TrEMBL record:
One example of a Gene Ontology biological process annotation: methylation
Keywords: Methyltransferase, Transferase
Protein name per Swiss-Prot or TrEMBL: Class I SAM-dependent methyltransferase
Stored Gene3D superfamilies: Vaccinia Virus protein VP39 (3.40.50.150)
Enzyme class: transferase
InterPro entries on file: Methyltransf_25, SAM-dependent_MTases_sf
EC identifiers of the protein: 2.1.-.-
Pfam family, one: Methyltransf_25
Amino acid sequence: MFGPEGPTLRELAVQALSSVEHGYDLLAPKFDHTPFRTPDGVLDSVAEALAPLGPFEDGLDLCCGTGAGTRVLTGLCRRGVTGVDFSAGMLDIARRRVRPADGPRIAWVRGDARALPFTAAFDLVVSFGAFGHFLPRELPGLFTQVRSVLRPGGRFAFPVFAPPRPAHPGFWLLLGFDTAMRVRNALWRPPFVMYYRAFRLGTVLRELERAGLTVELGVLPGFGRRADGSPRARLVVARRAGARPSEGQPAAGSVNS
C-alpha cells in the first residue's frame, strides 16, 4: 500500500479525515494500487458463476469505483453496461481504464446508490466491496433501490467472504480498523462511513427478502473452506420475480451450492 505506486501514509490520513466522497476523489488515481480494490481472482470467480445464468442484456455496476466490476459486466451483457458511483474522481479513472470495444456500450453515471437515477432498466446488477459504506439501517432502502432498477427476472449479485475467527490476526485487524473509524466519526465531521464488520450475512439475506427479492446463496469454490467445512467465499444472487423479456422460459443454469 505504501509502495511507489500506492498512496502514502499522509495521503491516506488526509483521505480518512475527509468525507467519503471527497476522500475517494483524492484516492482515485492510486486506488487500483491499494488492497481496497477487489482482486481479479474474485472478479473472475463471480463472472464464471454468473455466466450460466445469462445471457444478460443490460448490466449495472453499483458503486463502480474505478470500473473493475464494470469490466466484468462487459463479458456478461450483450447490449449495455452502466457504472454508477458518487465519486467524480473514481468515475474519471474508470472512463480512462475501461474503454468501449466491440462489446456492449458503456455509460458512466454519477449518483448515490441510495437514490438511483434509473427506472427498471437492468437484467443484472453487481457490486464489489462497497457495502461497508452503508450503515445497517440503510440496507432496506438500498436493496429497495436495487429492486426498483431490475427488470422482472433480473438479478442482483455480489460476493461475501466469511469473517475471520478470533484466533486469526485478521479478526483483530478488522476490529481495530472499525473501532478506529467509530472513534474518528465520534470526534470528527464529516463522517467517513467504512466498517468491515457491519455487513452481516444473516441480516443481508433477510433485508433482501423484505425488499421483494428471492435469494439464492451459492459458493465460490476457488477460495476453499474453513476448518469447520464452511465456504470462505459465497455468492449472493437475489432475483426479482418474473421472467426476463428475452426468456421464453426461466434462464438455464444455477448458482453452485
